[in-house]
Amino acid sequence: MASSILFTLEDAHQGLADNPIVLYRIRVTARGTRDSHPRQVIKYLTAPSPPEGASKFPDHRGQLLAFDTVPAGDWNLGRLVLASGGSAEGKFILDSTEMASLEEAVGLRDSGPPWCNRKVELLDLLDSFYAARKSVQGDQRDEVFTDIQCMNHLSALVLPSPAGIAAPGPEVVGVWAWHPGHAHGIAAESHVYSIIQARDPGIAPSFLAHITDNGSRVIGFLLKRVADAREAGPADLDKCRDVLSRLHALGIAYNESDGQLKRHSFLVCGGDKVLLRGFGGSFETTDEEILGRELRSLEQVLARQPSELEQRHASELEWLNAQRHI
């Protein structure tokens, strides 16, 4: 009989009504060989849809799982079914495991091709992040607001610089999305950084490495942390216009959707330098009308009060104060 091992729930996903797939991302310890230590491995659990009447939000706490161990062995996808009868009724039980193509089985695509020769594992990044957080005491740990470089990403954090990566400071910015339906966005943004890094690296934070899942599937990237950067305002118009024009000179528009250029699209650092960030909606084009419209919108963009970042921080402060009074 196959042995069982405990798992840790790392994250969860629940699809929309047209594809309500349920996915759990779990961590297990794989046995080492004679010459290696045990290592941490990511596996996935899936069901076609949540139980009837369940929340529309992902089950991040694993409350719908009726088990806390999984079989040891060489598999990457477990199939869930609903238990019928007994104390587990209405919850998921593990029906089978398999070594599957995650793209074909559950839509977990690779965000490659990788163009940078440096890669770092998401689990290692998050382990370092949570270890650093534990060393911060009391309320200081809670007073962490969304960093400007993390805005408008599904998952992004300021992380300790990993070993083996030539980061210029003690922290880096990680951007990733392991979920179905997000691989194209990560791949497209990574591609824009590859063009910038090759032709005009001074207009954006440096691209440091690809982030991987189980050492293979590309799911994100690491960027240089621009410490103490602020978002742009009306006084920065000329410098913002210059850096946006340099992006256009590479044949790249920041975003095809009106209103997507934000004050936090620009990082003002050191008082006199401006960088661009957040290329999730950027695309290659030589259409002068598109590029010209983007430049003409800049003055109005920088005059917006309050900014989206200011509104975000105000909401986070309100939530934090409410938590302290519970």
Task: Give short descriptive properties of this protein.
five-stranded mixed sheet, 26% strand, 7 helices, Transferase(Phosphotransferase), domain 1, 326 residues, 3 domains, alpha+beta, elongated
Can you describe this structure?
With 326 residues, this protein is α+β, with helices and mostly antiparallel strands. The chain folds into three domains: 4-106, no CATH class; 119-224; 234-311, Transferase(Phosphotransferase), domain 1 (Orthogonal Bundle). 24% of the residues lie in helices and 26% in strands. The protein has seven helices and 16 strands. Strands 2-3-4-6-7 form a five-stranded mixed β-sheet, with no helix packed on it. Strands 8-11-12-10-9 form a five-stranded mixed β-sheet, with helices on both faces. A two-stranded antiparallel ribbon has the order 1-5. Strand 2 and strand 3 form a beta hairpin. The longest helix has 17 residues, at 183-199. The model has no long low-confidence stretch (mean pLDDT 92).
Write the SSE topology:
Layout: E1 4-6, E2 8-14, E3 22-30, E4 39-47, E5 69-71, E6 77-82, E7 92-98, H1 102-106, E8 119-121, H2 122-134, E9 155-160, E10 171-176, H3 183-199, E11 207-213, E12 217-224, H4 237-249, E13 252-253, E14 266-269, E15 273-276, E16 283-284, H5 288-296, H6 298-302, H7 308-324
Parallel strand pairs: 4-6, 8-11
Antiparallel strand pairs: 1-5, 2-3, 3-4, 6-7, 9-10, 10-12, 11-12, 13-16, 14-15
Backbone CA Rg: 22 Å
Total strands: 16
Arithmetic mean pLDDT:
92
- Are there runs of 5+ residues with pLDDT below 50, and where? none
What structural category characterises the helix and strand content?
alpha+beta
Helix content: 10-25%
